[in-house]
Amino acid sequence: MRSPESPVLSIEGLIKDVGPLAALDGKMLRVVNGVSLHAERGQVTALLGANGAGKTTTLECAQGLQKRSGGSIRLLGEDPDLAGAGLRSRVGVMLQDGGLPPSARPLPLLRHIAGMYANPLPLGHLVERLGIDSFSRSSVRRLSGGQKQRLALAAALIGNPEVLFLDEPSAGLDPQSRQIVFELIAELRDAGMGIILTTHLMDDAQRLADYVYIIDAGHNVAEGTVAELLQHGEASRDGITERTLSFDAPAGLDLRAALGGLGEGLALAEDRAGSYTVTGALAPEHLARLTAWWAEKGIMPASLRLEARSLEDVFLDISGRDIR
Amino acid sequence: MSTTPTAGLVPAGAAPSAPAPLLRRILLQGKYETLAMIRNGEQLILAVILPLLALFGLTVTPLLDGLGAARVDIAVPGILALCAMSTAFTGQGIATGFDRRYGVLRFLSTTPLGRAGLIAGKILAVLAVLVLQLAVVGAVAAALGWRPAPGGWLPGLTMLVLGAAAFTALGLLVAGTVRPEATLAITNLLWMLLGVLGGIVVPAVRLPAVAGNLAHFLPSGALGEAMREAFLHGTFALPQLFVLLLWTVVPGAAALRWFKWN
User: Fold this and answer.
1) Which residue segment(s) compose the domain that A285 sits in?
2) Does the pLDDT of residue A168 top 80, yes or no?
3) Which string of DSSP letters, residue by residue, matches B71-105?
4) Is the Cβ of B3 closer than 8 Å to some Cβ of chain A?
5) Is residue A196 part of a domain?
């Protein structure tokens, strides 16, 4: 679902060549070959792809950090290659490597960056929300990966941008940082910010993204909401919906005996002792048989989960399971 | 935490994002980089301690005798030139090289500061540190009996700034084209070589013939000579001015063309 409002970022047929490279006998390498995407206010737009797919290059062309070789980019209606301070103040950028000086301390650094803006956010709330006060006395080089990411996010947000670019926001995050960062991203999205992020993790895209572009080998191969992409994947398999039932129960159960003739065509596995998966064209009668058998044997599973194909399956289908 | 989703972060009715005025951005960056340079211990040794040691060395040894002026009067202009090379070439070169490695240049160029503001801030920091060096070296030199020529300050400071511009251009060219470790090695090695053999503190006439002839065309030799002309005789050294301009424009243009931001 794309809103009719003008997008915060609009990329059409982006092309980026790098080189000439000695490894290619002095030829240019086309790292982005026709990426098109649109990002809206109040939405998280994810660029999903493997490492080297061209996500970061696409983002850097949109940020004006790299000059594009072809195609068009409009960021808040302007060409990022010609961006002035006015446009830069409305766009927050969190780079993949952070981009923070190792000898700096968090608070003076944030104060310094805040000084570049006429109307920066109050530092106190930002520092508190991202938990930066707990490590504000350490220099950047002593921070953990998660702490660095939180500081880089604060640096990207301090100017109160309308558009936020996050390159691999969950890279190196410990579970606590991940929780903090993901909650904040959702909150900023709800407040109307247009957020564009890259990730190679399906989980991130599934949790955060309103709209996903799957990028492979320098161009888009699929796009849609997470739900749309999952449906697309289901329909592509001769109309048969493949699902996975996974559950934890006592080890050594004989599932084939439990399902009897109904088990034909299903993949049954005990991946670890007591951790089972049943994969295939599961129907309600399979569930009925299985639960009846549990009741008969007095087995209560510790956990139970039924899911259709994951975004990961869709991604692998689309981008080619065999190539990688 | 907060009563409404964004109460904690974006205050209701917050003014829309806008850049701070250009001059304030450049001054802020200049101040930030100046403090970073002053707080760096190795940088201080290179910028202040080594030039002062060289100054003492040249005033207690007979190396500069027989050149028609007091040892200290010949030594100080060259030491000030050495200060410019320390700060603009080695100091700013190394700092910029590592900023590039850590993505600091890329991040700051996405803020309202931008690439031009970042460069302006770096030049400002070089000038600010140079003023501090001038104050320290000047005070020590005065205590050692330095008496600059009456009309020497205007040509002297002009040449010092031009020399700093040339060495900044060279430092940024190195920092923007090779790895930071290589920048570290190249700028330190050249600082040593040019400091000893480049005609900067030891006048070209006192160098071995090959080095002496070459020194006239080096930024080090041109700046050292121009500083001595200024503070010994109160004159603008036009040939040296031309050499320094060339060393500013050519590396500057090369840096604009080949500087890699990532």
Assistant:
1) 243-308
2) yes
3) HHHHHHHHHHHHHHIIIIIIIHHHHHHHHHHTTHH
4) no
5) yes
